[in-house]
Amino acid sequence: MSARQETGTTTAHRVVILGAGYAGLAAAIQLAARVKRREDVQVTLVNAQERFTERMRLHMTATGQRLAELSVPELLEGTGAQFVRGWVTAVDADAKTVRIDDDRVLPYDTLVYGLGGVADTSAVPGAEDHAYTLSSAQDAELLADRLARLDSGTVVVAGSGLTGIESAAEIAERHPELNVVLLGRQEPGAAMTPKAKAYLHAALHRLGVQVRAGVEVVKVLPDGVELAGGESIAADVVQWTGGTRISPLAAAAGLAVDERGRIVTDAMLRSVSHPEVYAIGDAAAIRQGYGVMHGTCQGGMPTGVHAALSIDRVLEGRQPKPFRFGYYHTPVSLGRGDAVVQFTRPDDSPRRFCLTGRMAVRYKETVTASPWPTYGRMKKMPASGAFWPRGGRFTREAK
Ligand SMILES: Cc1cc2nc3c(=O)[nH]c(=O)nc-3n(C[C@H](O)[C@H](O)[C@H](O)COP(=O)(O)OP(=O)(O)OC[C@H]3O[C@@H](n4cnc5c(N)ncnc54)[C@H](O)[C@@H]3O)c2cc1C
Fold first, then answer.
1. Which residue is closest in CA terms to ligand 1's atom 15?
2. What domains are there in the chain, each with its CATH number?
3. Which positions fall inside the FAD/NAD(P)-binding domain (predicted)?
4. What is the 2 CA–ligand 1 centroid distance (Å)?
5. CB atoms within 10 A of CB 101
6. CA 295 to ligand 1 centroid distance, Å
7. Which distant-in-sequence residues (6+ apart) come within 8 Å of 227 by Cβ?
8. Are 108 and 2 in contact, with CB atoms under 8 Å apart?
9. Which residue in 49, 100, 112, 168 has the most C-beta neighbors within 10 A?
10. For residue 9, what pLDDT is reported?
11. What does the alpha-carbon distance between residue 303 and residue 22 come to, in Å, rounded to a whole number?
C-alpha cells in the first residue's frame, strides 16, 4: 500500500520539501509557482523556524548586528504551498513518511531533502562542548552574547576556510578590544590568486587578526585550544569553523550517502537509492564533470530550482533533465568596509580577475541580498529563477 493510500484523505501527489534554506526555498517557490493551477499536486515546506536564516550573514549575527526579519510563511502566501513549522526527527524512506517533533507524521510521494549542514564539532574532542559555531541563528546569537560580555581577551577562530576568515574579520572589526587569532591547516585564501590572497592577508593584518596557518587544532579546551605537537593557545572564546557535517537523518533513513553523510544523487538530483527523493543544497553530493560540488548558496539555489523543474516534468509525464552547474565567484567579506571577490572558472579554480575594496563590498552585498528578492520574482515568473551558469565544457561530461 502506498503512503498516499494510507492516509486515505487525499488523492493529490504530495511533495514534501525539508528545509527552508537557500536551496529548499528555491525548490518550494519554483515548484509551487509551476503547479499553482493543479489541484492534484500539494507542496509542503517544513522548516525548524518561520524566520528565514540568512546563513551567509551569520558572522554578522555573531557580532550583534541585526538582520532583516524575513518570514517564510509570508513569502509562501499566494503560492498554494503549505508551511509546516517543526524539527524533522526522522525520515522513513520505505513508508515514505517524515516525522516532525517526534509526534507528527507527514506522508510524501516525492521528498526534497534540503536540510543543509552544520559545523562539524565532532572533528576534534572538546569542540562540541566548548566551541561556538555558526550552525544556526541561535548559535550565532549565543556567540554574540558571549563576545558582548568580554571587555578584553582572546578569540580563537579555528578553521581558516571562508567562514573562518569572514568571522575573524567581522569579530576583529566589531570588537577591537579583543585579540582575534585565526588558526588553520591552510593559509587563508589558499585557493585564490596571489593578488587576491595578498589583499586578503593585508586586510586581516589591518584589522589586527593574527593568522597562524599550517597548524592543526587537535582539541578544544574550556579555556583554549591544543595544537598538534602539544602547544596550547589560551582563549576566552573558541569559534569552530573546521568543516561541516550533514545531519545523520539521511543515512539513518537508509538513503545512500557519501562519507560526509550527504545524499548521493544521480544527474537528475534524485537519490541513487531512492529515486522519489531529490537532494539539494549542502545536504547533497552532486557530481559534475569537475568533481562533487561543495556547499555554496551560488550552487545550492540552482539545485533547488532544478529539483522543482524535474518534479514538474515528471508530474507531466516527461523525463527530468540532468543538472549542470559551474561556479563563477568566491566573494569574501572582510568586515563591513572591505571585501575581496575572486572570480573563478566553472570548476572553482581562480581566474586572474578579482575585485577588492569598496567595489568588492558592493558586489558581496548584492550577492548576499539577492536570494530573497529572487524568490519574490520567482513567485510571479518562475522562469526568472532558472538562469545560472551551466559550466560549459567543465560539466558537459557529467555522469
Ligand atoms: C558565514 C557564512 C558565509 C557564507 N557566505 C557564502 C557566500 O558568500 N556565497 C555562497 O555561495 N555561500 C556562502 N555560504 C554557504 C551557504 O550559506 C550555504 O552553502 C547555504 O546556506 C546552503 O543552503 P542550504 O539550503 O543547503 O542549507 P541552509 O541554508 O543551511 O538551510 C537549511 C535549512 O534547514 C533547516 N533545518 C536543518 N535541519 C532541520 C531539521 N532537522 N528540521 C527542520 N529544519 C531543519 C535549517 O534551520 C535551515 O533553515 C556561507 C556560509 C556561512 C556560514
1. 296
2. 10-116+247-326+370-377+392-396 (3.50.50.60), 121-242 (3.50.50.60)
3. 14-289
4. 32
5. 12
6. 8
7. 183, 215, 216, 217, 218, 233
8. no
9. 168
10. 52
11. 10
